[in-house]
Amino acid sequence: MRLETQLLHAGEPRPRIRDAVVTPIFQSSTYMSGDNEGYHGVRYIRLNNTPNHEVLHAKLAAIEGAEAAVVTSSGMAAITTALLTVLRSGDHVLCQSNLYGGTHDFITKDLPGLGVTSTFVDAADPSSWERALTPRTKVFYVEALTNPLVLVGDLAAVPRFAHAHGVLAFIDNTFATPVNFRPADHGYDLSLHSASKYLNGHTDLVAGAAIGRGELVQKVKLKLDHLGGTLDPHACFLLHRGMKTLALRVRYQNESALAVARFLEGHAAVARVHYPGLASHAGHSRARELMRGFGGVLSFELRGGVDAAEALLRRVEVAAFAPSLGGTESLITRPAATSHAGLDPDERRRIGIADALIRLSVGIESTDDLIDDLARALR
Predict the structure, then answer these.
(1) Considering its fold, how many domains does the chain have in total?
(2) Which residues are catalytic?
(3) Does one domain contain both 265 and 350?
(4) I need a labelling partner for 39 at 20 to 30 A (CA). Which of 15, 133, 156, 258 fits?
């Protein structure tokens, strides 16, 4: 089945439950079972095996062409559980620079307390990777599109390099989504998502997902059973419902974000626009080669600095001045004050996140209305 059909039908119970076209919410914490299930086989919400979980797991695996999937209570629950599954004291992680602030903090502030070290590299420069390897490197961790500069690393080379050196290849595919990029097709061992964003798409829940090789996903699931980052059945239902329109939403957002980026790039008040759909973007040719679309997030800098950025944020009316991204509503924010506020200012500047940088997550409003509103705010 093609993606649009998989989003609706993959993983659905057959026969349908009491003839219900939509899988119902199983608001039960526990289920009747035999005596020989084993701990992880007991039917219980925290063990991530209710009917609502199982439908999502099958659907997520199908849309990325992977063997298995597991959902979690947040994107960070997926990321942290996956890393804790494969890392031990003395291990080392190779990481892409410009990671999401929460991931960066976990790797640099929490993992060292567990005896795990890390090195950050330019994901677009494979020639620099081998120098950063150690005999204890276990994971090469990258993002399909980075937050907020939407950089595109050499995503095809990452799993080849990792596997040649006995290292696992992990990728955060939140920004690209399975509509634009399928990590399993390129050999990634695990794909991670903040499902709060595009997968759900409606800005009304927090969830995460880990998708990839069956044996590895099973290990992540067992670790998740112990750590307890479980998605509740009602949130599973909402995520399940939101995913059905993923392809429609993302393809529209791809087109709309490209039009907005072109408008901003041509505006006299704008100093720079970061969007891989633009020929001026450093990763443009790589994005064209690897991806089916350039995503719904862009960032830009105004010539007037922080004061101009704050003025724009107060003036826009269509996009909501709020953190997060990937929903039906357009959202606009200043990453230095939100998603990357936890980073040291010098570290933000080192990785190119200016204090005046504005990030725009393009929703499904009229593209013309978004552009008209930005034009008015920029005046």
Answers:
(1) 2
(2) 46, 100, 172, 197
(3) yes
(4) 15
Cα–Cα distance, 67 to 51 (Å, whole number)? 18
Contact predicate 359/333, CB 8 Å: yes
Domain boundary among 216, 243, 270: 243
**Could you tell me if 342 and 212 lie in one domain?**
no
The token pair at 145 is 């599109």
What CATH number is associated with residue 150? 3.40.640.10
The model's confidence at residue 36, banded by pLDDT at 50, 70 and 90, is low
Tokens 């200043």, residue?
334
Dig out the tokens for 285 from the structure.
């040719």
Q: Do 10 and 109 have their domain in common?
A: yes
Pairing type for strands 297-302 and 270-274 reads: antiparallel
pLDDT digits (tens, 9 = 90+) for 129-169: 999 999 999 999 999 999 999 999 999 999 999 999 999 99
Q: Residue 219 pLDDT more than 70?
A: yes
- Burial-class residue 162 by CB neighbours within 10 Å (0-12, 13-18, 19+): buried
| Region of poorest pLDDT, from 93-97, 109-113, 248-252, 345-349 | 345-349
CA angle in degrees (0–180, nearest 5) for 175-56-48: 110
Residues 6+ apart with CB under 8 A from 373: 316, 317, 318, 319
Residue 212 clears pLDDT 70, i.e. is over it: yes
Give the model's pLDDT for residue 336. 86
- What is the rounded distance in angstroms from the CA atom of residue 228 to the CA atom of residue 84? 13
Looking at beta carbons, which pairs linking 364-367 to residues 24 or more positions away fall under 8 Å?
A: 364/249, 364/252, 364/253, 364/256, 364/328, 365/318, 365/329, 365/330, 367/255, 367/256, 367/259, 367/260
Q: CA 238 from chain center: how many Å?
A: 18
Question: Are 186 and 251 members of one domain?
Answer: no
